[in-house]
Amino acid sequence: MTNSYDTGRLNLPFVGISTFGKRPYVEDWSSIDADVAILGAPFDAGTQWRAGARFGPRAVREASTLFSFGHAGAYDHEDDATYLPETVRIVDMGDADIIHTDTEGSHANIETGVRAALAAGALPVTIGGDHSVNIPCIRAFDSQGDIHILQIDAHLDFVDERHGVMHGHGNPMRRAAEQPYVTGLTQVGIRNVSSTAKEGYDDARAMGSDILSVRQARALGPQGVTDRIPTGARLYITIDIDAFCPSIAPGTGTPSHGGFLYYEVLEILQAAAKRHEVVGIDLVEVAPDYDPTGSTAILGAQVLMNLLGFIFHARASG
After folding, report:
1. What is the average per-residue pLDDT within 298-316?
2. Which one, out of 113, 218, 233, 299, has a CA that is 20 to 30 A from the CA of 270?
3. Rounded to 5°, angle at Cα 89 from 87 and 90
4. Distance CA 284, CA 232 (A)
5. What does the CA dihedral 150, 160, 196, 48 come to, rounded to 10 degrees?
6. What average pLDDT does range 289-305 have in this prediction?
């Protein structure tokens, strides 16, 4: 006797092509019809130390296949909720084309991809790449109304200019704060010896940033952190994997000890998704070659999957 579980392909995670969550690939960006559009941004020429995040999108996609068992959703017994049911349509756009040595050309191609997702009415989710890829992502929101940025990161990334460089991975939050439609930033996880000097912190606060270290965020708790985000703000969430402690996320170019553990970040994201409309996401700085276990890429994929689950569960719940 054959039951329904024996029909069709089993399609285990290690079988097939590694799109994000094994969702459909859409090569023609003018024909996106989805709730979520995943874009790879494999650019790491903005790094100031260890490169390798160009392989981040590929690694996160491969890791995400672990979470591809069926598309009927994932039941969470703690929340008594089913996240990402098949009614949430996710597609993978593939990667923006990267032009070696050409930051502006590469960034322009990333911006084109994010704009295509927005034009289709899909939530753009960009997988980097170093944190400079956030610059074109934010540029793409110039006609989308006001947004507030929630940054989960070890580093402030608020350098204005250094030796003529304005679009590296130390600059994105400064470039974002300059945009008239970015109403402010909540920067969480910032700690230890930083790539930004005191002047950068002063500038950030003067330009609308609220800066919290890991220890401050722990003292406040997830709800206390999200209480500091302005009521009614539409959120763009940028997650640098080095926000996490390198004991669980060593695969990154600029590791910084004393970082978050998994549930600390997850609960902040869940609280933010319940309170705010999330309009865009990027996850950056996964450099898989520094982590032979693959745990960093799995962490990145798991965070994205859960965050998307929280967002669309909140939307369905009104």
Report:
1. 97
2. 113
3. 145
4. 26
5. 100
6. 98
133: region left, alpha or beta (phi > 0 left; psi from -120 to 50 alpha): alpha
Mean pLDDT of 166-174: 93
And the tokens for 289? 């070659």
Phi/psi zone of residue 232: left (φ > 0), alpha (ψ -120 to 50 degrees), beta? left
Does 277 score more than 90 pLDDT? Answer: yes
Q: Is the Cα dihedral 162, 213, 141, 253 positive or negative?
A: positive
What order of strands is seen across the sheet that includes strand 235-240?
90-95, 36-41, 123-128, 278-284, 235-240, 147-152, 182-188, 209-212
Look up residue 260 and give its two tokens.
């978050």
Q: At what angle do helices 295-317 and 262-275 cross, to 10 degrees?
A: 20
Domains and CATH numbers, the chain: 17-317 (3.40.800.10)
pLDDT at 305 over 70: yes
Measured in Å, how far apart are the chain's first and last C-alpha atoms? Answer: 44
pLDDT for residue 316 is more than 70? yes
Q: Which amino acid is at 20?
A: F
CB 296 within 8 Å of CB 249: yes
Residues 194, 200, 204, 210: is their CA dihedral positive or negative? positive
CA-wise closest residue to 103 among 59, 31, 164, 152: 164
Residues constituting the chain: 318
Whether pTM exceeds 0.85: yes
The stretch 69-73 carries a mean pLDDT of 70
